[in-house]
Amino acid sequence: MIIYLDGEFLPKEEAKVSVFDHGLLYGDGVFEGIRAYNGRVFRLHEHLDRLYDSAKTIDLDIGMTKEEMAEATLETLRRNDHRDAYIRLVVTRGVGDLGLDPLKCSKPTVFIISAPWGAMYGDLYEKGLKAITVSIRRNAAEALPPNVKSLNYLNNIMAKIEANYKGGDEAIFFDTNGYVAEGSGDNIFVVKNGTIFTPPTMNNLRGITRMVLLEIAEELGIPVKEQNLGFFDLYTADEVLVTGTAAEVAPVTLIDGRKIGTGKPGPVIKQMTAAFSSKTSSEGTEIFK
Ligand code: PMP
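That is the input. Now the predicted structure with 4'-deoxy-4'-aminopyridoxal-5'-phosphate docked in place:
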């Protein structure tokens, strides 16, 4: 496996970062997870835009243009001969001292990993996921906007731990106002009487897959409403689904023990999944030109 690290392409064993890197010491950095399907990188530019917006919000100068980052990403895939992969782009504040002051970090650390990847939820795309609404709240937007895809994922990890203890495949977070926010690593959609509902992006990550699903809904003529949702909306939904780069489009058929709709993946989810896979297999930035 070849890793891109600070301008070099290195074998995995040689791709090392310092223990003084603030990404490690403080979770000070940003990242992206991107997929390549069938020799193309899906929505590369949207992911790069979000990476640079995340970095800007935390005042982190990546030190590379988006074009250079795109080329480094494509070259990492080429050097690994990957046509289908999960790509992780990471930019940390870089090496500093033991204090948290970012001014002590003179240059960012940038690395790119490409790993072979299959369907994250395996047979659950057929059976549906068991989700658990967790007691821990999504980070408040006033404290750390969930729109920033930062290296500090402890809030999400705490949610996942709670779901694991309670036997769930995924956690569903509420925000500090009691509205549905998102999953630990995905956005959430609810279908009720033929309309798709999803929370506005104040309390969740602006998922690229979420955006693709909104496009698909429009193409299929399915009405969509972005509005605040509560427990009631989850439990009484006809269908619930979660979306993410890793998760793709996955049905949720049980929430806190309540069967959702018929308890099986429903017709809207099936339509969305089919449309999503036709997009992922036919769109994107060519890796091997
Ligand atoms: N929310 C969170 C917290 C996530 O980590 C992810 C995965 N990146 C998502 C939503 C989905 O975003 P995307 O579709 O861009 O992968």
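The CA atoms of residues 209 and 248 lie 7 Å apart.
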